[in-house]
User: Fold this.
Amino acid sequence: MKPLDPETVAPPIPGSPSAGSFSAGSPTGEPDLGPPPDVSIVIPIFNEEESLPILHREILAAMEPSGRTFEVIYIDDCSTDSSLRVLLELKQGDVRIRIIKFRSNSGQTAAMGAGFEHSRGLRVATLDGDLQNDPADIPRMVEMAESGGWDIVAGWRKRREDGFVLRRLPSKAANRMIGLFTGVRIHDTGCTLKIFSGSLVRSLSLYADQHRFLPVMSAGSGARITETVVNHRARQFGASKYGLSRATRVLLDLLSIKLIAQFSQRPLRYFGLISLSFLGVAMFFLLVGFISLDPDPARGQQSLVETALGDFTINDWELIVVSIVILVLMMTVFFAMLGLLSELVVKASGMHRRRILDRILNELH
Assistant:
């Protein structure tokens, strides 16, 4: 998903080796980038000027011996330091670097979404820009994905070099809750280092902070997911951009992902359950109303039956019961109709057909 403020791809510096060639017949003026590489490495960046030169050297040291073609897509999320200047300097010496610049700070999910959209690789690797992920793991993970036919290979920071109370303990709790809630059981959903099938991530629609739930979102389309232990290193520069405050966002995003992943499959079933619940409440109040009525005319009260046959006057209790029953029956009809409307929307969108085609294509590949 594109950020609210459109991203701009930073142009090559004139006269540099990375200038590339532009297709003369291209009406958009986009550069001719050649054939798709084997791997696109997507790296969101926010205030990482000290880490970038080291990170890019490590990427080259890891990828060049593998013999695979690759591109590195850096997404500058409106850094306030000199990260963009450093990236442009690196780009002068390496034609495989592509830079996306956001006009405003939009967050890691928007940065990854932009990177996915502009990626061209058969496989897409995601990586943090703070040097805590080790690029040396990427070739091994790509080989694992290809040999095993996996759509996603997730990194597992089994020996994590972070503080226990503020980082590791909340992460363990969140991973366990996500696994129980979604059924996708991987040890470390928060690890950015992952390998994806290129066609898979380019079809995903991301927003909010959903980059943590990419395996969960992909599982609904039949993606094959596995994990492997990766190297994790202590932070060398700067400070973490995340803290305990993200726990609330993770919980809310988890609820939304759960709703999207399962509700869209059978909306009438969910709305039908709600509608039946309201119908049960209506029947309960109707039964209680009949049981509690006093039919003795000598006490100055009338039953509902007498009211229907008599002068159409009811007492306060009967009025409350009738009002509640009518209101709850209206909610019953409302949710039943909403379920039918949701089924119509899902059917018209062709969502299920696209997922079936995705599964077929996965089998063919």
Notes: The CA atoms of residues 220 and 318 lie 49 Å apart. The chain has twelve helices and ten strands. The two ends are 26 Å apart (CA to CA). Confidence is low (pLDDT under 50) at residues 1-29, 302-309, 354-365.
